[in-house]
Design brief:
The chain has 286 residues and is mainly α. Helix content is 79%, strand content 0%. The chain is built from 14 helices and no strands. It is globular.
Length: 286
């Protein structure tokens, strides 16, 4: 029996928890906790669980479809090390992804359609579009930005999603797109052998680093503009400062040193930055 730790690694649980926080934040930004009805609290909890399960399923199938690539780029992944078999990964991915989608039947039709579409896009990415490079990067960025809008949607805010939620989704999109391009620099050796056409392979690491830098700066500019639309702009800006500093540093560093080692380091730093950014958006709604 595979260990729980192996399944946690397969599902990248830390990403799922960030998705749950993003869903909660999107909901909290449009409706303060003090006026939540019991029904809306239940729907929000279901939405957060759905986010974790869908994220786990997508990541499980990502490893399932990309074992050979991971032997070079991520040799510690559980399918590469033998901690889990392909069959175990497939079953885990199928069960978590299916449950994550079907839970939305208890929320509302819009949530069900949106999550089903997102799961479908995620599977297309895993099976076909990951090797397409920049197009695949756009799909990942879309999936990263979606939970904030989804959080508002589970409470019934459709199609009139508030502007602050849309703007923060845009911040997340540009930040995630930059991170994916940086990942292409980090994984350039394995991607080249696997036939993945990332920007780093097509145009070179320096060009990829420049575009990633511009995307990080765009995310920072949008995050500052967002302060006009949050409930507590001073608290938002105070908490946003470390986030923007991380991304501004990353924008400078990746251009200055577009190496595999630096790209790996910046991917980790910007993940922390995104988590801090989600917290700043959440607390700005108090």
């Amino acid at each position: 029996m595979a260990s729980v730790k192996a399944y946690v690694k397969l599902s990248r649980l830390e990403h799922g928890l960030m998705v749950a926080l993003a869903v909660f934040t999107g909901a909290f930004a449009v409706e303060e906790m003090g006026v939540f009805s019991i029904g809306k609290i239940i729907k929000l909890v279901l939405g957060m669980v759905s986010g974790v399960l869908v994220e786990a399923g997508i990541f499980a199938f990502n490893d399932y479809f990309n074992v050979e690539e991971d032997r070079i780029n991520a040799p510690d992944r559980p399918l590469v090390t033998g901690e889990l078999s392909l069959r175990e990964a497939f079953l885990f991915g199928f069960l978590t992804l299916s449950a994550g989608v079907l839970i939305n039947a208890l929320i509302n039709l819009y949530a069900l359609v949106l999550v089903a579409l997102t799961a479908f896009i995620g599977m297309l990415y895993n099976a076909y579009f990951k090797k397409s490079g920049i197009f695949g990067n756009f799909l990942v960025a879309y999936s990263t930005a979606l939970p904030f809008v989804y959080g508002a949607l589970v409470l019934g805010y459709f199609p009139e999603v508030p502007l602050n939620v849309i703007l923060f989704s845009a911040v997340a999109f540009f930040a995630a797109l930059g991170r994916e391009i940086v990942k292409g620099i980090r994984d350039i050796e394995g991607d080249r052998k696997a036939g993945v056409r990332t920007l780093a392979i097509i145009a070179g690491s320096q060009t990829a680093a420049t575009l990633a830098s511009l995307l990080f700066i765009t995310a920072v500019i949008l995050s500052l503009y967002l302060h006009f639309f949050v409930k507590n702009p001073l608290l938002y800006l105070a908490l946003l400062a470390p986030t923007d500093l991380i991304f501004l540093y990353s924008a400078y560093s990746i251009v200055e040193k577009p190496t595999i080692e630096n790209a790996d380091s910046l991917r980790k730093k910007t993940l922390i930055g995104m988590a801090l950014g989600i917290m700043s958006f959440f607390l700005s709604s108090l």
